[in-house]
Amino acid sequence: MPAVISIAGLNKTYASGLTALQDIDLDIRRGEIFALLGPNGAGKTTLISIVCGIVTPTAGRVTVDGHDILRDYRAARARIGLVPQELYTDMFETPWATVNFSRGLFGLPPNPAWLEQVLRDLSLWNKRHDKIMTLSGGMKRRVLIAKALAHEPRVLFLDEPTAGVDVELRRDMWALVRRLRDSGVTIILTTHYIAEAEEMADRIGVISKGRLILVEAKTALMKKLGKKQLTLHLQEPLAAIPPELGDWGLALNNGGNDLEFRFDASKEHTTIPELLRRLSELGIGFKDLNTRESSLEDIFVSLVTERR
Fold this sequence. Notes:
ATP hydrolysis activity; elongated; alpha/beta; 4-stranded antiparallel beta sheet; nucleotide-binding; Rossmann fold; 6-stranded mixed beta sheet; ATP-binding; 2 domains; transport; P-loop_NTPase; Alpha-Beta Plaits
C-alpha cells in the first residue's frame, strides 16, 4: 500500500537546546489507522505539529500525498485535518457556523450536505445552532473533529481525541473513525487509552525521548512481543521456590500462594506439561490455574521502561 505521509531524517531542536525529535523515518500508508504511542514529553505532539505545518523542523523532509510541507505548504495542509488536544474554538459561535467557516478557510465552495453529514455522524446536528460555550466538554471535542473534517481531508490527525469524553461518546467517535478509514481516510492518532489503540490500530509506532523505537503491524507486534503468564494457585503456600525448579524462571506472589510462569505465546510448544509433571513429582499441588496474555499496554510499558 502506498505511503500518504513520508517522513525522512526528521529532527527538531528548539532554541533552548532541547532536542524533541531525532532521526525520525516513517511512512504512513494510505487508508490505515496508525497509532503513535509514547509517554508524556516523548515527542508525539511535536511530530504531529511538524507534519501539520505548525512547527518548523530543524532538518529532514516530510511530504503529504506527495506535497512537501515546506515548499508546497498550502497543498499539503489542505489534505490534513487536525484535532488538537486543547479545547479551543470560538465559544460564541455555533457548530454550524464554525464548520462553515473552517471549510471556507481552505477555499472550498459551500457543501451543506457534507457538513450536515459530519454533524449528524458526530451527534451534533441537534446542537448545530447552540452556542459552543453551552455544550459539554465531550460535545466541544466533537466540534473540533467536525471542524477538522469540514474541508474533506484525506489525512486526519487525532491528538488525544477522547480525553475527557464519556464512554458513550467515545464509542460513537470510534465508530466514525472506522467509517472514515473505510472511506479511504488515513487516521493517525495518539492516545493514553492504549486499549483503544489495541482495538483500533492497524499499525503501532512507539516514540520515546524523541526517537521512534518501534513501528510494527499490531498483530505482528502482539505475536512477537506478547507473553503469556501461567498462574498456579497452590494448595499450600511456599516459603521459597525449590532449587529443583530454579531453571524455570518462576516467581512467587500473593504470600507464596501463587506460582507464576511466563512463557512465549508465539512458540508452538511450551514446557507447561513438563512443569506440571515436575511439580507433581515434588508434591506441590495446586487448586486452580489461569493464563493471561500480554496486552498492548504491557508491551508498551516494557518497551518504554527499557529505554529509560
